[in-house]
Amino acid sequence: xxxxxxxxxxxxxxxxxxxxxxxxxxxxxAATPRVVSLELQLTEILVSLGAPPVAAADNPLYRRLIGRxxxxxxxxxxxxxxxxxxxxxxxxxxxxxxxPAWEANANRVTLARLAPVEVLGDxxxxxxxxxxxxxxxxxxxxxxxxAEAGVLVAALGAxxxxxxxxxxxxxxxxCRFFExxxxxxxxxxxxxxxxxxxxxxVVNAWTGRQNAFGTSLASVETLASMPSARIxxxxxxxxxxxxxxxxxxxxxWRALPTVRRGEVTAMPVVHPNGGLASAARLADxxxxxxxxxx
Length: 294
Hints:
This protein is an alpha/beta fold. It is about 45% helix and about 15% strand. Helix 8 packs parallel to helix 13 and helix 9 packs across helix 13.
């Protein structure tokens, strides 16, 4: 049996070989800083700007939760976000590593020994889309893609404007169901998803508490207090299918006015902390899902 240390060594050698196979950089590539991303949102923004990172944390999770824009095959995988492969980072010797404010304290000192680190975003109470735009514009500065950042901001604005023309005014609960069939994560106005919905003209039905990221954990029983709301939930594949199967066996769920009216709608998953491209995709999905004639 191969021990854990040997497995890590073999994985490092395989990834190093992959990085060596990338080939000689063009003059345009050479002029762009070699950036490593340690968060899905930052990875998405860099890909959207046309300047993907040389390596990123948790590429499989990116492909599952974000998907588009597609992560180029030559972006190397650093392993889990919480435990990136430090040996491989040292080997890569990037010009810069970018990390989000909410992850900065955990690894910053260690990472700074390997390469310069820039912390992006903040945990201030300013509007979430304002924070997201600031992160995108700063990344664009770093990689020399300011014009592309402007295009992304404009695309989100246009998508929200299209949605506002058609979205019906009924209060809406934006959520995802947990597999246990008894709990759900609710996206409020302080979340990126809730802020996009609000900009699209969606009235958020949730008036309860929300954490710093604009999400709340609620029980299915809570839905009885919102009889006029429709429910839009993000479908995460088998996890959601198991949740719905359990819900449909619940007398409480079946008795909810929203369920009895048939106003429970599934929507393709959008990462709750995605970038501007994800936000624009959500606006388009809300337009088609919640349009007055949808």
